[in-house]
């Protein structure tokens, strides 16, 4: 019997798990995919938002500003790659100027620090790659690795006693006296509390738990990933001023590792789990990208991907609604989160704290002794000085064997990734944890060695090695 | 009558034309060397091919040794030869040039190692 | 970390690096070391278990491993120092080389550096094929490595995009291992590999080749389930209504090789936008004095025999450089006309005879190669069956030059 079962190990589920693990509770996380960050958490721009676009007083606004302010501390505790680069929102016309003033005002009301308008000269000095007559500068905006953030939260939760179940999809539930039985593809789990962090499936799970009526609209956003050589001079987030409908057009965002992301666009889709890149989006992103980023060239394109935003839609007005974080007396011991889309990454821990607040409304929680907010990282060989690199190799010769040439990832890091605390073992799990196979050759040089290492270290048959998602087997067997 | 062949013996890929009447082969045009002429004549009568593939190695530093047939075999026997090779295991060390299977299926061709695989 | 002094550091122990090392030794340069990132020498030849190598050089048809072994035997015979499992991570413009090995960081100060790093493959992501991104999509070299070196079979039903030689070789390899290869698709209106490979890899096994076709969509959630193939027009745009779906669990990509010059960029070497390899003079020297390049890292070759030859010519120049014999400056640039993909070398002195390498852009049953200077033809060569797949070489004697002005190479179909 669990005290709390969390449905979904994305950024929200993992943040809830980590925060709940501060208390003396038996906590489990049920994740239908084979790892964390497979869906929305692993498919976004990796931005720490400042909070100047959200309606004042909304949960989006409050959680965003809160999450932004504390992130230096979080990045340090959990060892998350993070750069508070700052953002410039550039404009050309009077209309643009009005939009920027509007955002500056919203930002001020939301408590976003440091927003100011800058002129062309200051813009050129600050962000040489940016084109624009003027801009709004947001000093608190930043970029982070969404993969490592999700992994870090989950690993920290695990370290503090939480159990993670992967490849475990919740397909039904029933209530028995004062506890729930969650029926999953891997058997039944009983629990006193259920927290719905199912993201794209949150409205489905909400209905299943007895809270129907939430309508999610699904909006796919496609991306190009550009080579690090394209991003050498991109030192800030550069966004164009929003158009009349309020959304941002295509932008170029540096990643914390030095790549550049072009996108995302936004196309409403009906069928969930359709992550296909489409010719129409790819063509439009390419041509729009070329207009606003000088290094948008075919030779720099490494790959494409897509993410799906779960937007909570008002069925009558069709407006996009605020986050739902609720507990209802009529549906006991359920904390329900629906429609957590952008700025979900920035808001993760503030949302988790509000979940706990909901639980504390009806139950006293006792602190766990020895809760450790810090987790150990896999040391990134590529980022160290030559002195430290030499020391690492002397301590562990596996640091002296480079497996992924494009990203300079060593055997030591890959082995640590294979033996990760969560026990996940897909090729993509390795990729997300240590960047192997993320470079320009896309695993052309290293995937053979990595597949072999997974096989040797975990005693797997060839047919058991998965690429990333369920049933994504790499091999059909041996040759001989 | 004539028939055309793309020679596979070397990267020149000569376009070879063979003149023939019934079973009698006449002139062969377009080859840059004698190997090409021989190839084209064989293609008319009984196409022959060599195979390069791998054989499983036990106790070797790598699991496979690359092999080749040292003389061509009839083209229609390719898959039969492959089936036979698939079931063979050799034990390391294997030296490049070593005969793994002599006179495979009685076709007068040997399966020869093309790489050295040392013992683990 | 000690910095060791070397006369020459050779980066990459594949066919180019090996040939260069042996030639350097023969020219009396002994203080050399080959730095190879793999566990064994041989480079890409280790996984090329098919034959057809060495016909020009050794007058016999060898498999890749056998060809490599000839040079590795010489490395042992001449006692040439090599370090495997050492990955070079930095080269500075003043020729300090840093490598990572299990024994620690290795740092060298070199008088000359030989760049022989070979190529990487162009990926699905680089060409931007729409669709999902499931398991089962492999570039030809990766598939070849899994099957020939790692004993791992990648699929049961395959299609192949790209009719380059590697793609066709893999079509045959997969078929021999029981994989159903349904078709090969080529976006150009003509095949990009050699006719002999179409014959022995595709026709022999009744694998159809569709030119002017490409993959326009990929379906599959975890593992590949099918691809959509369409015919393309002269601009290589898909023709609506010609789409066909091919069920398959494997797609092999053979859509081009890219010289692997990331390290070259770290030491200030300038690259040719046509070849993606270094800009070099008639001595295979790059713009950085003492840094030379040869083999696939310089231009994508189709015959390893030419790789060895190119590396040997380069090594000869490296030796001359070290003996301070002095090179006359190479200020005459050679450029390709639109009919020619690229020309190497890109700069010559005009004082010695040179051999130029290039490829035509389109196949031509009969064509004339013109070398022009100051608007006049200074060399003509007639070629039969010119193919982009086959590198062409042309002699350019110094005596034929009229001035020090730019030279152009042009191909005209007759």
The count of helical stretches of chain B stands at 2
The CATH topology label of the largest domain in chain B is CPE0013-like fold
Helical percentage of chain B: 10-25%
Number of strands of chain C: 28
What's the CATH architecture name of the largest domain in chain B? Roll
Q: Mean of the pLDDT scores of chain B?
A: 94
Could you give a short account of the major beta sheet of chain C? Answer: 7 strands, mixed
Instruction: Indicate the CATH architecture of the largest domain in chain C.
Output: 3-Layer(bba) Sandwich
> What's the multimeric state?
heterotrimer
Helix-strand pattern of chain B = EEEHEEEEHEEE
CATH level-3 fold name of the largest domain in chain C: FAD/NAD(P)-binding domain
Cα-atom radius of gyration of chain C: 22 Å
Structural class of chain C: alpha/beta
Poorly predicted parts of chain B: none
Percentage of residues in DSSP E strands of chain B? 35-45%
Number of strands of chain B: 10
Helix content of chain C: 10-25%
Quick one: CATH class of the largest domain in chain C?
Alpha Beta
- How many angstroms separate the termini of chain C? 62 Å
As for the number of domains of chain B, it is: 2
Global outline of chain C: globular
Structure description:
The complex is a heterotrimer of chains A (480), B (120) and C (414). The radius of gyration of chain A is 22 Å and the shape is globular. Chain A is built from 13 helices and 23 strands. The mean pLDDT of chain A is 95. Helix content of chain A is 30%, strand content 24%. In chain A, strand 10 and strand 11 form a beta hairpin. Chain A starts with a strand and ends with a strand. Chain A is of the alpha+beta class. By secondary structure, chain B is of the alpha+beta class. Chain B has two domains: 44 residues, no CATH class; 62 residues, Roll (CPE0013-like fold). Helix content of chain B is 18%, strand content 37%. Chain B has two helices and ten strands; from the N terminus they run βββαββββαβββ. In chain B, the strands form three sheets. Chain B has a five-stranded mixed beta sheet with strand order 8-5-6-10-9. Chain C folds into three domains: 193 residues, FAD/NAD(P)-binding domain (3-Layer(bba) Sandwich), CATH 3.50.50.60; 133 residues, FAD/NAD(P)-binding domain, CATH 3.50.50; 85 residues, Immunoglobulin-like (Sandwich), CATH 2.60.40. In chain C, a hairpin with a 6-residue loop joins strand 15 and strand 16. In chain C, helix 1 runs parallel beside helix 2. The chains are: A alpha+beta (480), B alpha+beta (120), C alpha/beta (414). Chains in contact: A-B, A-C, B-C. At the A-C interface, helix 8, strand 18, helix 10, helix 13 and strand 23 of A face strand 7, helix 3, helix 4, strand 11 and strand 15 of C.
């Amino acid at each position: 019997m669990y005290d709390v079962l969390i449905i979904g190990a994305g950024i929200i589920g993992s943040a809830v798990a980590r925060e709940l693990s501060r208390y003396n509770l038996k906590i489990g996380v049920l994740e239908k995919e084979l790892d964390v960050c497979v869906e929305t958490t692993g498919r976004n721009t990796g931005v720490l938002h400042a909070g100047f676009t959200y309606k004042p007083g909304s949960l989006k606004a409050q959680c965003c500003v809160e999450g932004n302010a504390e992130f230096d501390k979080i990045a340090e505790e959990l060892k998350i790659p993070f750069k508070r680069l700052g953002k410039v929102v550039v404009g050309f016309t009077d209309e643009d100027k009005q939009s920027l003033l509007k955002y500056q005002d919203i930002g001020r009301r939301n408590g976003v620090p440091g927003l100011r308008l800058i002129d062309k000269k200051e813009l050129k000095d600050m962000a040489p790659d940016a084109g624009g007559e003027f801009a709004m500068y947001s000093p608190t905006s930043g970029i982070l690795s969404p993969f490592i953030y999700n992994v870090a939260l989950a690993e920290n939760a695990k370290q503090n006693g939480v159990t993670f179940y992967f490849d475990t999809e919740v397909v039904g539930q029933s209530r028995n006296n004062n506890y729930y039985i969650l029926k999953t593809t891997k058997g039944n789990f009983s629990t006193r509390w259920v927290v719905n962090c199912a993201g794209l499936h949150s409205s489905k799970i909400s209905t299943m738990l007895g809270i129907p009526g939430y309508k999610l609209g699904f909006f796919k956003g496609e991306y190009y990933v550009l080579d690090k050589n394209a991003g050498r001079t991109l030192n800030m987030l550069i966004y164009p001023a929003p158009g009349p409908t309020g959304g941002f057009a295509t932008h170029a965002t540096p990643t914390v590792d030095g790549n550049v992301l072009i996108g995302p666009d936004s196309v409403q889709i009906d069928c969930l789990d359709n992550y296909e890149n489409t010719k129409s989006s790819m063509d439009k992103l390419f041509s729009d990208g070329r207009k606003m980023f000088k290094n948008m060239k075919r030779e720099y394109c490494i790959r494409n991907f897509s993410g799906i935003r779960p937007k909570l839609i008002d069925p009558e007005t069709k407006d996009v609604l605020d986050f739902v974080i609720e507990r209802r007396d009529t549906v006991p011991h359920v904390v329900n989160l629906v429609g957590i889309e952008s700025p979900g990454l920035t808001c993760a821990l503030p949302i988790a704290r509000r979940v706990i607040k909901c639980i504390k409304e009806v139950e006293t929680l006792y602190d766990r002794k020895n809760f450790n907010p810090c987790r150990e990282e896999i040391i990134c060989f590529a980022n160290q000085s030559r002195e430290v690199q030499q020391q690492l190799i002397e301590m562990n010769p596996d640091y002296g064997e480079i497996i992924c040439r494009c990203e300079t990832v060593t055997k030591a890091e890959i082995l640590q990734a294979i033996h990760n605390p969560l026990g996940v073992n897909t090729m993509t799990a390795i990729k997300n944890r240590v960047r192997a196979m993320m470079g320009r050759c896309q695993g052309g040089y290293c995937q053979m060695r990595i597949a072999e290492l997974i096989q040797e270290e975990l005693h797997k048959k060839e047919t058991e090695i998965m690429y990333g998602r369920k049933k994504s087997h790499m091999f059909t067997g041996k040759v001989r | 009558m004539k028939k055309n062949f793309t020679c596979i013996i070397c990267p020149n890929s000569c376009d070879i034309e063979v003149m023939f009447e019934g079973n009698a082969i006449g002139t062969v045009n377009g080859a840059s060397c004698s190997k090409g002429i021989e190839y084209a004549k064989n293609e008319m009568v009984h196409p022959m091919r060599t195979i390069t593939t791998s054989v499983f190695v036990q106790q070797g530093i790598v699991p496979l040794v690359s092999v080749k047939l040292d003389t061509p075999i009839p083209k229609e026997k390719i898959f039969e030869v492959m089936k036979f090779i698939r079931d063979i295991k050799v034990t390391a060390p294997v030296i490049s040039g070593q005969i793994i299977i002599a006179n495979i299926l009685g076709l007068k061709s040997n399966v020869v190692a093309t790489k050295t695989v040392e013992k683990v | 970390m000690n910095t060791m002094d070397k006369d020459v550091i050779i980066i990459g122990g594949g066919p180019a690096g090996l040939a260069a090392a042996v030639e350097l030794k023969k020219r009396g340069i002994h203080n050399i070391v080959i730095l190879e990132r793999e566990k064994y020498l041989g480079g890409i030849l280790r996984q090329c278990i098919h034959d057809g190598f060495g016909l020009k050089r050794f007058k016999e048809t060898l498999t890749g491993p056998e060809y490599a072994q000839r040079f590795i035997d010489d490395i042992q015979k001449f006692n040439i120092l090599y370090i495997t499992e050492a990955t070079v991570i930095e080269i500075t413009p003043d020729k300090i080389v840093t490598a990572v090995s299990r024994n620690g960081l290795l740092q060298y100060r070199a008088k000359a550096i030989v760049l022989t790093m070979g190529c990487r493959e162009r990926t699905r992501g680089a060409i931007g094929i729409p669709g999902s991104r499931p398991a089962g999509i492999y570039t030809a070299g990766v598939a070849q490595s899994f099957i020939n070196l790692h004993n791992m079979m990648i699929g049961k039903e395959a299609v192949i995009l790209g009719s380059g030689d590697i793609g066709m070789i893999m079509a045959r390899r997969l078929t021999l291992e029981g994989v159903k290869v349904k078709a090969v698709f080529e976006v150009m209106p003509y095949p990009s590999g050699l006719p002999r490979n179409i014959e022995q890899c595709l026709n022999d096994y009744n694998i159809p080749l569709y030119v002017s076709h490409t993959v326009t969509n990929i379906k599959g959630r975890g593992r590949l389930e099918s691809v959509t193939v369409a015919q393309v027009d002269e601009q290589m745009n898909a023709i609506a209504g010609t789409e066909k779906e091919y069920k398959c669990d494997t797609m092999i990509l053979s859509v081009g090789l890219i010289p692997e010059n990331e390290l070259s960029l770290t030491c200030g070497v300038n690259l040719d936008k046509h070849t993606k390899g270094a800009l070099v003079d008639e001595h295979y020297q790059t713009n950085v004095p003492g840094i030379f390049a040869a083999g696939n890292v310089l231009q994508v070759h189709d015959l390893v025999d030419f790789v060895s030859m190119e590396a040997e010519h380069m090594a000869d120049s490296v030796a001359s450089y070290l003996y301070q014999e002095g090179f006359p400056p190479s200020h005459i640039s050679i450029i390709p006309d639109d009919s020619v993909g690229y020309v190497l070398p890109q700069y010559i002195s005009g004082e010695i005879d040179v051999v130029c390498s290039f490829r035509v852009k389109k196949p031509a049953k009969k064509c004339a190669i013109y070398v022009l200077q100051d608007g006049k033809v200074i060399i003509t060569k007639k070629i039969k069956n010119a193919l982009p797949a086959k590198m062409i070489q042309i002699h350019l004697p110094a005596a034929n030059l009229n001035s020090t002005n730019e030279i152009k190479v042009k191909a005209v179909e007759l």
